[in-house]
Write a structure and sequence with these properties.
The complex is a heterodimer of chains A (448) and B (349).
Chain A lengths: L6 H24 L24 E6 L4 H9 L1 H7 L2 E6 L3 H10 L6 E4 L2 H9 L8 H10 L2 H5 L2 E2 L2 E2 L2 E7 L2 E4 L1 H7 L7 H13 L3 E3 L11 H24 L8 H14 L20 H4 L8 E5 L21 E4 L11 E10 L4 H10 L2 H10 L17 H11 L5 E3 L1 H4 L2 H16 L4 H11 L3
Parallel strand pairs in A: 1-2, 1-3, 8-9, 11-12
Antiparallel strand pairs in A: 3-11, 4-5, 6-11, 7-9, 7-10
Chain B lengths: L6 H9 L8 H4 L21 H11 L2 H24 L4 H6 L4 H4 L6 H8 L7 H31 L5 H11 L5 H13 L1 E3 L2 E4 L11 H23 L4 H9 L4 H12 L1 H17 L2 H6 L9 H7 L10 H32 L3
Antiparallel strand pairs in B: 1-2
Helix pairs in contact in B: 1-17, 7-17, 8-11, 8-14, 9-11, 11-14, 11-17, 14-17
The chains are: A alpha/beta (448), B mainly alpha (349).
Pfam families (chain A): SBP_bac_1
Keywords (chain A): Transport
Protein name (chain A): ABC-type glucosylglycerol transport system substrate-binding protein
Chain lengths: 448, 349
């Protein structure tokens, strides 16, 4: 039987451990940038925030490469003002932020991807309303459509940050021109085009609903786009606010219209199989068959530009590009749907206010846009900085004063519906469940 | 000291196959108890020996071996395919199945390079160190405290001893998720009763930021640890303690010279348990360590590796294997204690 370690061994182990932890602390604390000269001309835009100092913690769901870009974007602000920003990104943001707030460990600032979550914390009194300076910047920067989503009881709680555009249909310009297809301008043309492509022996659409725990959300985007285009923003608002029931005939009509594409075996699912394959095709891979001509069109948000393999040319005459889903009802025009994050604050220290102000400026938007793969609906955003043509297209549409914008409906509905039964309902529906049964199932889960 | 006639029965009964894990975290390692009870043949004949021998004979037949091999292959296949995938180029991983690499072999170490050395947040190295700094003390604390507590609960007579043990036993039923928010509040706000600050908030700088995670893991690991070791230590023969006391040993000497040397298998198996549990933990680390590069362990980084929209998920293949290396090493070097200690400590007749 082996002997228990000699006490000297234990001491040595403990000692080395202490040295190890000490070393780590030294390594992690010792770094940091030297900071820029506060009087230099490049620090000019940050003059008003100098002499504040301090540290601001930010918590968000943005992580990995995108988090690095975000940190690079505000690096100059950090260097010039001496305000440190401690960023933490987590895939568990939605659940964790609640735990952190309940545990008295709330971050100073959080980026909320759902206005519904922002509202919950605003109503509970945890969030700090935007001070006047932030409010002024927000009104200069964004349209009312956007700010309405962060305004509760007449108080503005958050400012928009990034944006994405969810009414895009991705396609291959090369494939289209080789076969003489034209980008459709109306819904009827879209169906006509789909028929033509199907007759040519290619499945016109590819669709993928799979997304781990969130499987089904690409389906909700389809329905939301159709409801918005068919019935207009007012009915859309009534729907997401539950002023009309989920099984209303207007919503049923929207499902039936989506049905003509999503559950049409002649149309789907290019490159993957039959209608049932939609539920098990991941949204990340869903559009890739476009590249080898196995399908022609894929409805997915602007962020899909990051999914194309390296070397794919995203351009109006390149390998892939996107068009705005054509209008359905001429009376309602082309209202667009999208998403984005809102900056909310749990603290009102001067340095936190300074960071909130900075994040609401066009300088930040441009600085972040220059890092790539990002855009916002900020009116002051310099479109020339946007590298990806589809981002430019999306940003252009979003900040057009004529554009009617609506936020992704499933992010506005209560979580048990918008992030629960609506997703599951879409999966059941694509697997063959009756439209009425699906609508009743979702309606019954909506408590108020 | 005549320990040998006494300890085998405890182990033999363990071989009888009480498979139910005593806590959810044991379930992961449940397969360890599937090892056939080698002890059975060391024992002299019992009336049930013949039944056991029949079962044993049947289990060693060719068909049984074939079935076992099939199960083992099925069991290993997902992990093996993940391993093979980790050497394939990104586009191949995303568009074709791993089996295509046999017909069209394209190998690359790109995934590992990206995961281990890509600049920015990508480096796993510092998270690796964090994982160690979190795991080693959390394991040491639990093993030391649990051994002391188990000894006291088993061999020190004090009023209410059984109630304390019952309480510890009952604590295993409480899911740790229930304690997350109160414990976080305890760390970040301290304790205030009726407006009076009883304990201040823990505002720990530098390396001591790890203290929160250590304390949390120790708290969550102790009930099972005490329970396991108590069952083991209380089975030690009374005569041993009486003899030592006659020789003038107090509790300190008893613990150091009698209990510790005899419980090494149990201590090691508990240490492995705790090590694997802490190393693989994501939930506790997310809440108490935060996602910062200065304190977050490997699991937190692994969860972020795929990117905001999961578009870099090919990295997970390599990342998973990097994080798997240490637990595998620990398990294989200490596994002979593991099975022995697990059977001896966790199952009580």
């Amino acid at each position: 039987m082996p002997k228990f370690p000699d006490p000297r061994v234990t001491i040595a182990a403990t000692l080395s451990l202490v040295l190890l932890t000490g070393g780590c602390a030294y390594l992690s604390g010792g770094g940091g940038s030297a900071g820029a000269d506060p009087d230099s001309p490049e620090c000019e835009p940050y003059k008003q925030w100098q002499d504040i100092g301090g540290t601001v913690s930010i918590y968000a769901s943005i992580r990995d490469v995108e988090a690095e870009r975000l940190e690079r974007a505000w690096q100059k602000f950090v260097d010039c003002t001496g305000i440190k920003i401690q960023y933490e990104g987590s895939g568990e943001f939605e659940a964790q932020v609640q735990v952190k707030v309940d545990g008295g460990n709330a971050p100073d600032i959080a980026f909320f991807p759902q206005p519904g979550l922002l509202e919950r914390f605003a109503k509970s009194g945890d969030l700090v309303a935007a001070p006047e300076s932030v409010q002024k910047l927000a009104e200069e920067g964004w349209s009312e459509d956007w700010l309405d989503y962060a305004t509760f009881d007449g108080e503005l709680y958050g400012t928009p940050l990034g944006a994405n555009f969810k009414s895009f249909v991705w396609y291959s310009p090369t494939f289209f021109s080789e076969n003489g297809y034209e980008v459709p301008q109306t819904w009827d043309e879209l169906i006509e085009l789909s028929d033509t492509i199907a007759d040519d022996g290619v499945k016109p659409w590819c669709v993928g609903f799979e997304s781990g725990d969130a499987t089904g959300w690409p389906g909700t985007d389809w329905i939301e786009n159709v409801v918005l285009r068919e019935n207009g923003p007012d009915v859309y608002d009534q729907w997401v606010n539950h002023d009309i029931p989920f099984n209303d005939s207007k919503i049923a009509d929207a499902f039936d219209r989506a049905d003509t594409i999503l559950r049409n075996p002649d149309y789907v699912n290019g490159g993957f199989g039959n209608v049932q394959s939609i539920a098990i095709t991941s949204f990340q891979e869903g559009g890739l068959p476009i590249l080898d001509g196995q399908c022609a069109m894929y409805l997915m948000g602007s962020f899909y530009s990051a999914q194309w393999p390296e070397g794919t040319e995203v351009a109006e005459d390149g390998d892939v590009y996107a068009f705005n889903l054509p209008p359905i009802n001429p009376d309602q025009g082309t209202p667009v749907m999208g998403g984005g994050e809102f900056v909310g604050a749990f603290s009102d220290r001067p340095e936190v206010v300074a960071v909130r102000e900075y994040l609401a400026t066009a300088e930040f938007a441009n600085s972040r846009a220059a890092e790539g793969a990002w855009f916002s609906a900020h009116k002051g955003l310099d479109l020339d900085l946007l590298e990806v043509p589809t981002d430019r297209l999306g940003a252009e549409i979003l900040r057009d004063p004529e554009t009617v914008f609506r936020f992704d409906g499933s992010d506005l509905m209560p979580a048990e519906v918008g992030a629960g039964t609506f997703w599951r309902g879409m999966v059941n529906w694509i697997n063959g469940e009756d439209t009425d049964a699906t609508l009743d199932y979702i309606e019954n889960s909506w408590s108020s | 000291m005549s320990t040998s006639p006494q300890s085998p029965p405890a182990e033999e009964e363990g071989g009888g196959g009480v498979r139910k894990p005593s806590s959810p975290r044991a379930a992961r390692d449940d397969y360890a108890t599937h090892v056939p009870p080698l002890r059975a043949k060391e024992n002299p004949a019992h009336s049930r020996e013949s039944a056991a021998a029949r079962v044993r004979k049947r289990l060693t037949s060719t068909t049984a071996s074939a079935i076992a091999i099939i199960i083992a292959v099925l069991w290993t296949l997902p992990t093996a395919s993940l391993f093979l995938s980790s050497f394939r180029p990104e586009l191949e991983i995303k568009t074709t199945g791993w089996w295509t690499m046999f017909s069209d072999p394209q190998l690359t170490l790109n995934n590992y390079r990206e995961v281990l050395f890509s600049p920015g947040q990508g480096q796993l190295a510092s998270y690796f160190v964090n994982s160690f700094v979190i795991t080693v003390p959390s394991t040491v604390f639990v093993v030391v405290l649990a051994a002391l507590a188990a000894y006291a609960l088993a061999w020190v007579n004090f009023p209410g001893r059984d109630w304390v043990f019952l309480g510890v036993f009952a604590l295993q039923i409480v899911p740790l998720q229930m304690a997350l928010v109160p414990l976080l509040r305890f760390f970040s706000q301290g304790v205030t009763i009726g407006g009076y600050q009883i304990l201040p908030a823990w505002d720990l700088p530098g390396a001591f930021a790890f203290t929160n995670v250590w304390v949390a893991h120790t708290i969550f690991g102790l009930p099972l640890g005490i329970f396991l070791l108590h069952n083991f230590i209380s089975q030690l023969p009374t005569t041993l303690f009486e003899a030592a006391r006659v020789d003038g040993a107090g509790h300190g000497v008893l613990f150091r010279k009698v209990v510790l040397p005899l419980t090494v298998p149990a201590l090691v198996s508990l240490a492995i348990f705790q090590f694997l549990w802490v190393w693989n933990d994501l939930l506790v680390a997310l809440i108490f360590a935060g996602g910062d590069v200065s304190t977050a362990p490997l699991t937190v980084r692994l969860a972020e590796l795929a990117g905001t929209r999961g578009n870099e998920w090919q990295r997970l293949t390599a990342g998973a294997f990097v994080s798997m290396v240490i637990p595998l090493l620990v398990f294989f070097t200490l596994q002979r204690y593991f099975v022995r200690g697990l059977l001896a400590g966790s199952v009580k007749g």
